[in-house]
Amino acid sequence: MRILVTNDDGIHAPGIDVLEEIAREMSDDVWVCAPSEEQSGAGHSLTLNRPVRLHKHGERRFAVSGTPTDSVMMALRMVLTEENGGPPDLILSGINRGANLADDITYSGTVSAAVEGALAGIRSIALSQVYSRESHGQDIPFAAARAWAVRAIEPLLDTPLPERTLVNINFPPLAADKVQGIRVCRQGFHDYSRGSVVVGRDPRGYPYYWFGLNAIEHSLDRGTDLESIDDGYVSVTPLQLDLTHHSSLGALADRYES
Ligand code: MN
């Protein structure tokens, strides 16, 4: 099984080393192609206004001066070519430093790398380690991810999933032996928008604006990824790329009938 590992925290982030180790437990054909710089919050963006560079850091290790989507695209088009043995059977994105739960997944470069893989018809999984800076500081304990990732990934390898679907996995911020288990659950929603804007002045006196991420509330909603993490479970959520709201099609079509 050929595995491509990528992320949005950048090729030097500790989480991608953890994920590479996890991938190597499942295969000896593991390739890394990830952004050269942190790209958290990049979503599914594609670099169009400037060239990207491909840097080879090792026999199977590449960095792309672009977004997570750029990295997957470069891996599939320029690295894992037919001459190099062909495309991967599995794409793993992460392990992200922090949660990718509920509506936050729309901003997520980690999830979007898996979106790009799903669009290319490859089984793709995003993985994130939930943590809180208040209790953990800058050191992200990947213990739950390390101990539970293979158990979370393996059933997905031979489960038939429809085209253009991917899987989003989050690990709770707990020691490995405190994790309660694995739950398959739907995507939740936060109660209100996550972004805050901090206004400051640069050294020349001009204003700047910097988006922040507040810890935000969510109401208890049964069966969601948010609930699973709150309960101490690994959350496994299948996602689909068909964003159509099917049940609105009829009512909208009626409105346009002359
Ligand atoms: Mn990130």
Describe this structure as you would to a colleague.
- The protein is α/β, with parallel strands linked by helices and 258 residues long.
- The chain has helices at residues 14-26, 68-79, 109-119, 133-136, 143-157, 225-230, 249-255, and strands at 2-6, 29-35, 54-58, 61-64, 90-97, 123-129, 165-171, 181-184, 195-201, 207-213, 233-240.
- Strands 3-4-2-1-5-6-7-11-8 form a 9-stranded mixed β-sheet, sandwiched between helices. The chain has a two-stranded antiparallel sheet with strand order 9-10.
- α1 packs across α5 and α2 (68-79) packs parallel to α3.
- It starts with a strand and ends with a helix.
- Manganese (II) ion binds at residues 8-9, 40, 96-97, 110.
Care to give the gist of this entry?
This protein has 258 residues and is of the alpha/beta class. It is built from seven helices and eleven strands.
Number of helices: 7
Q: Largest sheet at a glance? A: 9 strands, mixed
What's the rounded overall pLDDT mean?
Answer: 94
Multimeric status of the protein: single chain
Share of helix, binned: 25-40%
Summarize this structure as a short list of keywords or feature phrases.
258 residues, alpha/beta, 27% strand, single chain, binds manganese (II) ion, globular, 9-stranded mixed beta sheet
Secondary-structure map:
Elements lengths: L1 E5 L7 H13 L2 E7 L18 E5 L2 E4 L3 H12 L10 E8 L11 H11 L3 E7 L3 H4 L6 H15 L7 E7 L9 E4 L10 E7 L5 E7 L11 H6 L2 E8 L8 H7 L3
Parallel strand pairs: 1-2, 1-5, 2-4, 5-6, 6-7, 8-11
Antiparallel strand pairs: 3-4, 7-11, 9-10
Helix pairs in contact: 1-5, 2-3
The structure holds manganese (II) ion.
